[in-house]
Design brief:
Blueprint: H1 18-33, H2 40-53, H3 58-65, H4 70-77, H5 85-106
């Protein structure tokens, strides 16, 4: 791990093997909780989406996830934002302004 301590070390203080964690802890946990469909990528995507919603930039999120390119983070991990009320209001305002301008021309 290049000088970093393991976040969840084994009982002997070494880095746990991914297959060991997956088979002994992760899969049984998912089965007990009924979330067999959840993957580690599910967590990464959720974290990226929550950080995006919190207002962090793509660069900041990429750094947290360990990506060298923010575009990769955006393309793979960050959820697409659903159109919000602000977008609907902005479009409504533009359409309303256009209608007013067209109406003023028609009634001249």
């Amino acid at each position: 791990m290049s000088g970093r301590a393991a976040s969840v070390p084994s009982s002997t203080g070494t880095v746990r093997k991914a297959t060991n964690v997956r088979n002994r802890a992760w899969k049984p946990f998912l089965k007990r909780t009924g979330y067999e469909w959840v993957t580690f990528r599910t967590f990464r995507r959720t974290v990226a989406t929550l950080l995006d919603q919190a207002g962090l930039t793509a660069r900041q999120i990429a750094d947290i996830l360990g990506h060298s390119r923010p575009s990769m983070t955006q393309d793979v991990y960050m959820g697409r934002r659903s159109p919000g009320r602000a977008a609907a209001d902005a479009l409504g305002s533009v359409i309303s302004d256009e209608r007013e301008q067209i109406g003023a021309k028609v009634w001249r």
